[in-house]
Amino acid sequence: MSRPKHTTFIDNWESQVRKGVLAYVVLLCLQEHEYYGYELISQVKTQTALDIAEGTIYPLLNRLKKEGLVSARWVTMEVGVPRKYYRITEDGKALLEQMTASWTTLNDAIQGLRTWQRA
Amino acid sequence: MAARLEPPVQDAVARRIWENYFHEVRRQARPLPKAQQRELILELYGHLQASMASATVEREAERVLDALDKLGSPSEYVKPLVADRMLEQAAHSFNPVTIAKGLGLSLFRGVAYTFSALGFFVGYLVSFTLIAIALAKPFFPDAIGAYTHPGGLSIGFLSDSLKGQAVEHLGYAIIPIGLLLGSVLYVGLTKLLRLLKSRRVEI
């Protein structure tokens, strides 16, 4: 069975789209639950099928923390080293609402364009 | 955290792989504040422990290699941390070395960053050139200045071939003008860098 045409282009495009929404996805994961780094990136990879190095979650979380969108706390574990848990802040929730509104607008625009194209 | 954490593996090969990796992490993370370095190491340690705990392979060395492979090379996540730190420091300082380091690291972070970093580099280069021209004028009064000639306009060194045909316009006034323009450009670029840094959410 031959490979579909433009597979590389599609793969690259999908990768760029997923990377572009990574911050949005991370904030969505954190809106109901706090996670430590490994748990969070595992959730993100499972939900989005994003093939990225797990370590890239750390500079993103660092930036989100600096912007006041997430907060972090160290939790002593019974076994093993302490873990740094991240949770969304009120500012993060407010930004998430704005991002959701932007995402919805974009999605609606694309749906509209697809409908218009078919007509 | 005063003492170095022991690798959570027994096998000698696995320990060596682990220690080599963390040696590289520590090396790349050196520009970060000590507290941030310690926290990063602790987070990565916990990350890898959890990753290895969910692995299905038996050999420790393979579990370590798989976990490190999924985590990624240190440069993939430490460099952005260091670049953010450098730019943050640059935004609060007028130190040209700090600014250069921050912009230089930004060149590794994608096309948009590269173009904006290059823009700032060119801007700073122009400001340093203007200041250098002003400082060099007293030592090369006939060869440095602002000239018009048949080929157009030259600011800086005038080549020997044009000397007979060029008309100088500012004379020694290029010293205060060069110093002023160069300084204003330098301060303006640094303030712009600070403004851009404070406004953007790093996504």
In short:
The complex is a heterodimer of chains A (119) and B (203). By secondary structure, chain A is mainly α. Chain A has helices at residues 7-20, 22-30, 37-48, 57-66, 90-118, and strands spanning 35-36, 70-75, 83-88.
What can you tell me about this protein's structure?
The complex is a heterodimer of chains A (119) and B (203). Chain A has 119 residues and is mainly alpha-helical. In chain A, 62% of the residues lie in helices and 12% in strands. Chain A is built from five helices and three strands. Chain A has helices at 7-20, 22-30, 37-48, 57-66, 90-118; strands at 35-36, 70-75, 83-88. Chain A has a three-stranded antiparallel sheet with strand order 1-3-2. In chain A, helix 2 packs across helix 3 (37-48). The two termini of chain A are 33 Å apart. In chain B, strands 2-1-3 form a three-stranded antiparallel sheet, covered by helices on one side. Chain B contains seven helices and three strands; from the N terminus they run H-H-H-H-H-H-E-E-E-H. Chain B has helices at 12-28, 34-53, 60-71, 74-91, 96-106, 111-136, 174-199; strands at residues 144-149, 152-157, 167-168. Chain B is mainly alpha-helical and 203 residues long. The model of chain B has no long low-confidence stretch (mean pLDDT 83). The longest helix of chain B is centred in the middle third of the chain and has 26 residues, at 111-136. In chain B, helix 5 (96-106) runs antiparallel to helix 6. At the A-B interface, helix 3 and helix 4 of A face helix 2 and helix 4 of B.
